[in-house]
Amino acid sequence: MGSSNNNIILIFLCITNLLRFVGSSSSGDFVECLTVQLESSNSATDDLIYTPSNNNSSSYASLLITQNLRPGSTSPYNKPLIIFTPFYDYEIQSAIYCSKKLGIPIRIRSGGHDYEGLSHTSQDNPFVVVDMRNLRRISIDAEQKTAWVEVGATLGQLYHTLAQKSGTLAFTAGVCPTVGIGGHFSGGGYGMMSRRHSISADHITDARIMNVDGEILDRRSMGEDLFWAIRGGGGTSFGIVIAFKVNLITVPETVTVFNVTKTWQYIVDKVDENLLMRVFLRSVRSVTTGKRTVIASFTTLYLGGVEDLLPIMKEKFPELGLVEKDCTEMSWIQSVLVFAYIPHQPLEVLLNRTPPFTVYFKGKSDYVTEPIPVDGLIGIWRFLHEEDENMAEIQLSPYGGALNSFSESETPFPHRTGNIFMIDYGLSWDSPGNEEAGKHLNWMRRIYGYMAAYVSKSPRAAYFNYRDLDLGVNNYSSGNIIGSYDEAKVWGMKYFKNNFERLVRVKTKVDPSNFFRNEQSIPPFPLQPMYSS
Q1: Which residue of 51, 180, 341, 523 shows the fewest CB atoms closer than 10 Å?
Q2: Residues 451-477, buried b or exposed e (16+ Cβ, 10 A)?
Q3: Which residues contact 452 (CB under 8 A, 6 or more apart)?
């Protein structure tokens, strides 16, 4: 009886400590704590700690620059107290120590491309950002065709490093060079070679992660459950991933880029897996009639030369009449520049991590398992015409091929057999203000509602790397930092399907106090009360 009561008191005290209010804590407290910790390990602090008021205030502002301005303009507490930019593992341990000591939560950022800005905005006030940009070392073993990539590197840096090492070593990942490795790999990592080589997460063979106790674990020491979770379930729910080891792929010396315009959705998931055709739908004003019309722009990659491609196209798409002059042969790294809309730039442009432009943006995603009928497409056209020309875009990304060679539960990324293509709804605007944002967000939610009849169901699936807080959020009100399993299941099933339950079990094992949390992080199961018998 006495022992059980002591356990209850201990649990109560632990929870009370976790839920204490932190309003009296300040950036000065955190800076002081960090400074003491860093100096004890002989680390300089001048290039590590940035606040709005210190001598690095201009650098603080530049570190907050992100392509999507919307989250920072609408979140209740949009600016962190501190941006901490560690160079080494042990410096991250200092941030975890101070976060626990002062009760100030942290957010982890590698590239800052989260659709909802969860890597640099928060509904917790105050909060601190641990920006991983300085941990960006890449080590390539060309003979073994493997690489260790730190999470602060960008896709562009990885591609550039591969190109310097070999003309045929590559990696399957996204097209935007300023996207950070950390979020992209841990959330899935779809790209232009995914029908042939699947997604980034499927090529991860090892990782280094710092847990809630500041310990650094590799695959062997973290165990297979946690290793499974960070390959598609998002890394920041479980710890701070420092680096991934991946298997590289071999590509032909020559690839082919071309455009097509017909019968896309009926065959796109069944053609040769070396072929990927991505479609971008926009409403523009016709230069001949002056009226609005919807155009389909096809971004297409074939892993091979024109000579091999043309027979495939003649068999699968004879109505297109594709001929050699419609195609452009190039190296894989040149195609990377084409898909990033920087085709004539030197390769060094891939090392630039600053977004090429900034806009207010909202995105959503869907998965399509049956071709959309003509009536459904007509409705999409009407919606596209409602927004200003070129501001709304529907992106259709094909599935099938190698993506189907994995089961739904092999990694947390469940979008495998049965999907024809993924839809990425994107809408951007230039003017700030809640009224302007409300107008565009209303359009986005209406087209999303309209599309319910034409997309996956039970659950209506979504891609975790196209984060969407409209699907649901964790509620941390009234000091509850554990969150609600039932609330999280609403959005979690959409991203992860039945894998959500296993992700929660892993979270409960490695971070039961929910130290690593955000508005859509995996929650732990709530602590069960202990009763005496």
Answers
A1: 341
A2: beebbbeebebbbbbbbbeebbbbebe
A3: 460
Alpha-carbon span 506 to 514, nearest angstrom: 12
The whole-number pLDDT of residue 192 equals: 97
Q: What is the pLDDT of residue 13?
A: 34
pLDDT at 88: 94
pLDDT of residue 152: 98
Do residues 184 and 388 touch, judged by C-beta distance below 8 A?
Answer: no
Dist. CA 114–CA 395, nearest whole Å: 18
Backbone angles phi, psi at 84, to 5 degrees: -110, 125
- Does the annotation count 466 as an active-site position? yes
pLDDT along the chain (533 residues), means of 10: 38 37 63 92 83 79 88 72 94 96 94 92 86 98 97 98 97 97 98 98 98 98 98 97 98 89 57 88 86 86 94 80 89 96 95 90 97 94 91 95 97 97 96 90 98 98 98 82 88 98 98 95 77 42
Tokens 């941006």 correspond to what residue?
A: 83
Long-range contacts of 456-459 (CB under 8 A, 24+ apart): 456/366, 456/367, 456/368, 456/369, 456/419, 459/493, 459/494, 459/497
Surface-to-core class of residue 151, CB atoms within 10 Å of its CB (0-12 exposed, 13-18 middle, 19+ buried): buried
Look up residue 213 and give its DSSP letter.
Answer: T
CB atoms within 10 A of CB 378: 10
Q: What is the pLDDT of residue 448?
A: 98
CA 168 remoteness from chain centre: 26
Q: Where are the alpha helices (DSSP H) in 19-88?
A: 27-40, 57-63, 70-74
Distance between CA atoms of residues 111 and 492, nearest Å: 23
Q: How is residue 174 written in tokens?
A: 């996204």
The two structure tokens encoding residue 361? 């943006």
Q: What are phi and psi of 458, to 5 degrees?
A: 50, 60
CA 238 to CA 509: how far, in whole Å? 10
Of 85, 46, 44, the residue nearest 62 (C-alpha) = 85
The torsion region of residue 63 among left (phi > 0), alpha (psi -120 to 50) and beta comes to: alpha
Q: What is the pLDDT of residue 12?
A: 32
Q: What is the pLDDT of residue 79?
A: 84
Q: What does the buried/exposed string (b/e) look like for 498-530 if buried means 16 or more CB atoms within 10 Å of the residue's CB?
A: ebbebbbebbbebbebbbbbbbbbbbbeeeeee
C-alpha 256/C-alpha 72 separation (Å) is 40
Q: 157 in helix, strand or coil?
A: helix
- Give the strands of the sheet with 328-330, arranged side by side: 328-330, 255-258, 292-302, 275-285, 392-398, 421-429, 360-368
Q: What is the pLDDT of residue 265?
A: 58
**Among the options 466, 476, 485, 495, which is catalytic?**
466
